[in-house]
Every structure is written in structure tokens, then in C-alpha cells.
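Bug report (template v2)

What were you trying to do?
Predict the complex of my protein with flavin-adenine dinucleotide.

What happened?
Run completed; filing so the output is reviewed.

Input:
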Amino acid sequence: MKTHFDTIVIGGGPGGLAAAYRLAEQQSVLVVENDLWGGTCPNRGCDPKKMLYSAVEAIDHQHTLQSSGLVGTSYINWPQLMAFKRQYTTQIPDGTLNGLQSAGIRTVTGTAHFIADHHLRVGETDYTADHFIIATGQTPTLPAIEGRDLLQTSNQFLDLDHLPAKIAFIGAGYIAIELANIAATAGAEVHIIQHNKRILRDFPEAMTTELITSLQNKGVQFHFETTVTKVYETTKGLVLNNAGGFTLTVDAAFAALGRHANIDELNLPAADIATGHHGIQVDEHLVSSNPRVYAIGDVVDRPQPKLTPVAGFEGRYVANQLLQTNSDPIAYPLIPHTVYASPQISQAGVSVQTAQENPDQYRLNQQTTTNWYTFNRIKEPNAIVTTIFDRQTNQLVGAAAYTTIAEELINYLTPLIKNHTTAAELTDTIYNYPSPASDLKYYY
Ligand SMILES: Cc1cc2nc3c(=O)[nH]c(=O)nc-3n(C[C@H](O)[C@H](O)[C@H](O)COP(=O)(O)OP(=O)(O)OC[C@H]3O[C@@H](n4cnc5c(N)ncnc54)[C@H](O)[C@@H]3O)c2cc1C
Ligand SMILES: NC(=O)c1ccc[n+]([C@@H]2O[C@H](COP(=O)([O-])OP(=O)(O)OC[C@H]3O[C@@H](n4cnc5c(N)ncnc54)[C@H](O)[C@@H]3O)[C@@H](O)[C@H]2O)c1
């Protein structure tokens, strides 16, 4: 059995797979995965979350169109919605494995750990390689409090057979907000417990404040400036409390206060691979402190957002470095982000906060677009689109949107920012009318 490879990839998620497929065009490649082939995004992240969100979007539209001739109400049948999600997720691990094997990539299921500089052990077998790519991702973080083991995480939420009647989320980032919105729309009583006053700290505050109201209208209850210090079980359910007098009894509680890098099992000191607070330290070429070893995706200690397209971009970048088709330091394109709530908030490029802090450099154009045809047609209750311009060049440099179509709007605006497209150039393009794209010139 072959045990030496040109490159060994540790982790079969979006980052590792992007690297492996590109490398396999010219190299012998082994991928090691210790859990679900395909990684977080398709098994217990982006994709299953958005399968559940499909029903939420439909209910939201039905709700807002009630006064416009759409009669009747729908509700979510959780077990059926979960079956719909599972139809998708159950195919992922085998499909991923078959895809890799068809591309001539060797695969091993097991936990990889280093035993020396270029030596990796999986189970009883030792493997060597000229290069390694660590793409082991992240795991949900549980708070260091009494009773923490009673808390569940997004992994369990996205695979619940039955929706508990009363749910708490600890944290108010992407995961808490997206899952709380799904649970509340599906009929649960939902509480969000946040240690400060801010939700979704990377998104514009004016928009997150609107989102709080929108979620409250769905029945979500926020407990701000509240830190849970103890969790325990009673016959009535799980009790979350703190010494300041906060007590909440729920049927299930989910920790959503961030994720940490999967590095503990890798025995990184054996290969002299340095780590920081947020994972594996890498240079501008994504090389770790060991020149044979690269790291990509969520496991990396870098400021870029931890998102699937970022992991894939880094995977392809490292493969091209190893195939010597690119030797430049990594240069990221614009990275749009969306929180899939009701409505969505999306942004790309220069942030609203940066623009507000630098008024001499940037001009902000914040428009309430609720009454524009596009938003009125779907009875959007409150839509805001903010565009940001460089004062010197008058070029579009950033955008943020608060609407049910924010994800698509930001997908249109991202290339306009990237290509420095002017308003005049936009009027030379014919888009389908009426559609979100035919509004683009009005954001200038
Ligand atoms: C609930 C949720 C929703 C999300 N929604 C979105 C979204 O809407 N859009 C978006 O862009 N991103 C989203 N993300 C983030 C996205 O899932 C990650 O950014 C992406 O999966 C990172 O890819 P990766 O390859 O770096 O890591 P992962 O996908 O985590 O893959 C790493 C793999 O390595 C394996 N592994 C770990 N240790 C070892 C070891 N020692 N040996 C062998 N294998 C190992 C793991 O089992 C895992 O399969 C979401 C995440 C979560 C949790
Ligand atoms: N739509 C998307 O693209 C999407 C969706 C879900 C997840 N993700 C990715 O997954 C990552 C992890 O998501 P997340 O929501 O777990 O993390 P996050 O970093 O987005 O949010 C963590 C939240 O927990 C709060 N918090 C931290 N410590 C706390 C404590 N002790 N008590 C109470 N609250 C506390 C923070 O203030 C913050 O609100 C995201 O950063 C993102 O990269 C992306």
C-alpha cells in the first residue's frame, strides 16, 4: 500500500477539497477525514441551515402578502422540514468520498496526528509527504461554566427530530441569530442571551437594531448584558442562571458563542507548527512555521471571515503555490457576508462603520427603499440599502443591505465595487425589468 504522497490534506471540508482536486491534476494526493466527508458546510453548516431557511422565507413572504390578496396561513411541520434537510445531508459524505476517489485522490477515514516533521499517523498507519495542508476547520465553543455539558450546539440544532417548545441561544452572532429565526418561525418560544448589547458585531448597527425589532415581532426575546454562569437540570427543564438574579427555564439551550480551531488532536509540536489564539499561524503564503506545512480555511489564525468561499479560495491558492503556477502572496478578493435572518443583512467592501469614522474619505448614501417598486411588490415592511463612495474618485467602494433580497443585491454590487463600475457605465447595461438588478443605478 502506498504511504508516501506528494501532498497530504488533513480535513475533507470545503478548504481541503478545493486544494485536493486542484493538486490531483498533477500530484499524488491523500485526504484524511475523521468525521463527515464534505466537512461542516454541507453536513452541519451553511447548506442544511439554508434548507431549513427555505420554509422560513416562504412563511415570511406569505405573512407580508396577507394584505395583498394572499389568503390563509402556513406553518412549519418540523419533522417534515427535517426530512427535507436530511434528504440532502445524508447524501453528502458518500457523494464526497466517491467524487474524490473518481478523481484519483486517495482517502483515509481516521484522525490524523503528526509524529514528526513530515510524518503523519492515522490509526495504525504512518504516512509521509513532501507537503501537508491542514484544513481541519473549527468546532463550537462551550462556555467555561458549571453545567456546560447540558448545552447543545448548532450541530444538534440542525438535526433535531422535534423542535423543543422553549429554546435559548447563548450568544448573538451569526449562528444564534440565524437559528433563532428558524426556531421562532417554526413556532418555538425563543430567547437570545447576549453578554453585551450588540448583536452581529460585524454588521452595521443601524441594520442590526432593525433586525432586533423584526425578530421581536416574531416573538424572539432578547436578554442583553446577561452572562449565564450556571446551567442545571430540573423536572421542569434546563435552568440557565447567574448570581445577578437572571433565571430562565427552557427545554433546550444552545451555545452559539463562537467556534475554535480543531488543532488539539493534531500533535502540532511534533512538526514544529506554531499556533495563536485563533488557530494555526501562517505567513502571507499560508505557510506555517514548518515550511512543509500549509494551513487553510477556518483553522487558520487570520482576520479573514471564516466562510466557505474563503476556505475554497485559500485551498485553490495553496494548490497553485505547490504546483508553482503562482508564487505571489495571497490577495483576497472582496468577501461579501450575509446573515440569513428575516430579513437578511449583507455587506461587502468598505464597512458602514469605517465610512462613518472617516467622513473626509467616504460618502455614505443610506436609502430607505421600502417604497421602491422592487420592495413594494413583495410588501417588504422595511428595506434599507447603504452604498459607500470614495470622495476623491467617486467610485463605489462598499455596500450594505437590510432586506429579504440582500444576499442577491450584494452579489450584484460586489462586482460593481470590484470593477470600479461607474453609474454612467451601468446605464449602458440592460437588465431584466422590473428586477433587483434594474434598480442598481439608483444606488449610485
Ligand atoms: C451553523 C453554521 C452555519 C454556517 N453558515 C455559513 C454560510 O451560510 N455561509 C458560509 O460561507 N459559511 C457558513 N458557515 C461556515 C462554513 O461552514 C465554514 O467556513 C467552512 O465549512 C470552513 O471550511 P473548512 O474546510 O475550513 O473546515 P470544515 O468544513 O470544518 O472541514 C474540516 C474537516 O476536517 C475534519 N478534521 C478535523 N480534525 C481532523 C483530524 N485531526 N484528522 C482528520 N480530519 C479532521 C473535520 O471533521 C471536518 O470535516 C457556517 C458554519 C456553521 C457552523
Ligand atoms: N451566514 C454565514 O455566513 C454564517 C452563518 C453561521 C456561521 N458562520 C460562521 O461561523 C462562525 C461562528 O458563528 P458564531 O455565531 O458561533 O460566532 P460569532 O463570532 O458570529 O458570534 C459569537 C457571539 O457570542 C457572543 N459571546 C461570546 N462570548 C459569550 C459569552 N460568554 N456569553 C454570551 N455571549 C457570548 C459574542 O458577543 C457574539 O455575539 C461565524 O463567525 C462565521 O464565520 C457564518
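What did the reviewer find?
The pocket of nicotinamide-adenine-dinucleotide (ligand 2) is lined by residues 143, 170-176, 178, 194-195, 227, 256-259, 305-307, 337-340 (CB under 6 Å). The chain has a mean pLDDT of 97.
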